[in-house]
């Protein structure tokens, strides 16, 4: 039972990087590495193919490290269930929102959840600011990172 009590909470990280060129370089390098690895695996006696695969993998790792260096990461942790339930209860939907099927107030809850789940210590005011000033897709990804980690399951019922 002690081992179950000591389980770490699920985490989810959101990469924030405004350098589209670096992201494209990583995608291209990853595709090149996959292609080179496929060819090397298909021709195991071809040493130049194996070397190209190793070089392509190294280029991918270098590009990935450059992207990591140019990125900011926001990390979110799953909240204990009672804490999440209290947070949802603290942000009830309006009558209209409830009629539309909402279980929490979508105007106030996202920033509260982002702040509560933030491993980096983001305040609710900071979360509200980002949600209000980032583009809709970026704000949605911020919200989704904080919400999805709350839904993550790491248990299995098995096949029995």
Précis, in short:
With 160 residues, the protein is mainly α. It is built from 8 helices and 2 strands, in the order αβααβααααα.
What does this 3D model show about the protein?
With 160 residues, the protein is mainly α. The protein has a two-stranded antiparallel ribbon. Helix 2 packs antiparallel against helix 3. The mean pLDDT is 95.
State which percent range the strand residues make up: 5-15%
Q: In terms of structural class, how would the helical and strand content be classed?
A: mainly alpha
Global mean pLDDT:
95
- Biggest sheet descriptor: 2 strands, antiparallel
State the share of residues found in helices, binned by percent.
55-70%
Keywords:
single chain; 160 residues; mainly alpha; two-stranded antiparallel sheet; 62% helix; elongated
Question: Layout of SSEs?
Answer:
Blueprint: H1 2-5, E1 11-16, H2 20-42, H3 47-70, E2 72-77, H4 81-89, H5 95-99, H6 109-117, H7 124-133, H8 136-151
Helix pairs in contact: 2-3, 6-7, 6-8, 7-8
């Amino acid at each position: 039972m002690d081992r179950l009590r000591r389980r770490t909470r699920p985490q989810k990280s959101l990469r924030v990087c405004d350098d589209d060129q670096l992201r494209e370089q990583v995608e291209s390098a990853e595709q090149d590495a996959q292609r080179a690895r496929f060819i090397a695996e298909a021709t195991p006696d071809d040493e130049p193919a194996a070397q190209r695969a190793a070089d392509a993998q190294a280029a991918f790792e270098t590009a990935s490290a450059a992207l990591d260096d140019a990125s900011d990461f926001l990390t979110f942790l799953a909240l204990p269930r009672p804490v999440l339930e209290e947070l949802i209860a603290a942000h009830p939907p309006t009558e209209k929102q409830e009629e539309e099927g909402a279980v929490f107030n979508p105007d106030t809850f996202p920033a509260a959840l982002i702040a509560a789940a933030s491993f980096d210590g983001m305040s609710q005011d900071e979360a509200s600011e980002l949600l209000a000033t980032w583009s809709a897709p970026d704000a949605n990804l911020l919200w989704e990172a904080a919400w999805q980690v709350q839904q993550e399951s790491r248990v299995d019922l098995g096949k029995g």
